[in-house]
Each structure stands twice: as structure tokens, then as C-alpha cells.
Amino acid sequence: MTRIAAIRLLLAALAATFLAGCAAFKPQVSEGRLVPPPGTAYAVVAVTLKSFDNITSLPDAALEFTGPAGRHTLWGNTSTAGIVAPGDEPNGDGILNVVALPAGDYVTTRMFGSWMMESAGMRWREYANVPVTARFSLKEGEVVYLGDAHLRLDFRPAVQFSGQQRRDFNHMKVRWGVTDTSNIRIAPLQATAPAAQ
Fold first, then answer.
1. Which of 1, 97, 98, 133 has a CA between 20 and 30 Å from the CA of residue 37?
2. 135: how many CB neighbours lie within 10 A of its CB?
């Protein structure tokens, strides 16, 4: 790998980490509850991934959706400690995102990501893009848990939506100080179009 290629790879990894950190900021919590800023709602969704090797392949994944505020991208990668699962259960490989959005109707458009490959002393990045449609709605002042958006990163990439409430609510408690989840509406994403290619 040339010096320029190494610098480009490092910058790409730093940019992905920065963007993921922006989306996964610590949300507002009051009296143990998630409280979105006035005039918005909180959408909470885990973006997780699985690659050939979740460490050395430097994988990243993203969920893209559109709505009243335009296009949004939420990231997940393995450069963080992951999503904190309870007890001895394995942590989730990715990031639990929370984002404040205006009320309205939203639709996912795709999940995409990349991972590093190595052969004969050469390293390069492979890319995956999976169109997927799932609709969700937000009302002002509410908190909605949209579940887990998981991207399998290989030469036959696929998306799987699921509820991982036990893991993700534990993360909220441990990392964000959320002790009261009674105001969270649970509405995991459901694909309405093929999620594999």
C-alpha cells in the first residue's frame, strides 16, 4: 500500500467514526426518560453489521432514510465499544443511534457499507449497497424505538430488521442513564421491499 493510499484509508476511517459519533450523541434525559428537544421526536435505531472479520476488515454500515427534513444517514462501525448488552450476552457490533427529527412520515431507501479485503499483499475496500424500503412515522414529542437495522457485508449483502429491545434498552440505561422507558413507543422497522441482492 502506498503512503497516499494509507492516508486516504485513515481519513476515510476517521470520517466514518466522526459521522457515527455525531449521530450517536448522548440524548437529552430528564428524570430517567428520553426527552426530545421541543418541536421534534426522537428516533432510536441500532445500525449493526457483520463482516468477514469485524476488526481487521474495518467495516462500516449505514442506514439511509428520507422525510420532512430531507435525507439522513445513520452509521454503525466496529471502532467503538459496541452496543452494551446485559450480563454475559455479546455486545452488538455497531452503534445505537438517536436522532431528533421533525414530526412526519419517513421511509428508508437503502443500507450501504464497506469492508477491507487483503490478498497477495494488496489491500482494498469492497462496497455493498442494498435498496430497502421501510416506513415509519413520528409525532412531535414522542420517542420511537425502530429496532435493529443489520447489514451483512459480503459478496451477497443483505439487510435484516429486527427488535433487539433487551440489548438496546440496556445500552440506554448503562450509557445514557435511561431508567424509565415507559414513554418509548416500540415500532421495529419492517421491510416492504426485497432486502437482499
1. 133
2. 14
In a domain, residue 10? The reply is yes
- What are the two backbone dihedrals, phi and then psi, of residue 62, each rounded to the nearest 5 degrees? -145, 145
Partners of 158 in the β-ladder: 152, 196
- Are residues 69 and 102 in contact, defined by beta-carbon separation less than 8 angstroms? yes
Antiparallel, parallel or unpaired: β 184-186 and 143-152:
parallel
Single out the residue of 12, 145, 2 nearest to residue 79, CA to CA.
12
Tell me the per-residue pLDDT of 73-91, one tens digit each, with 9 for 90 and over: 999 988 777 999 999 999 9
Mind listing the pLDDT tens digit for each residue in 119-128? 888 888 999 9
Q: List, for residues 91-142, the tens digit of each pLDDT value.
A: 999 999 999 999 999 999 999 999 988 888 888 899 999 999 999 999 999 9
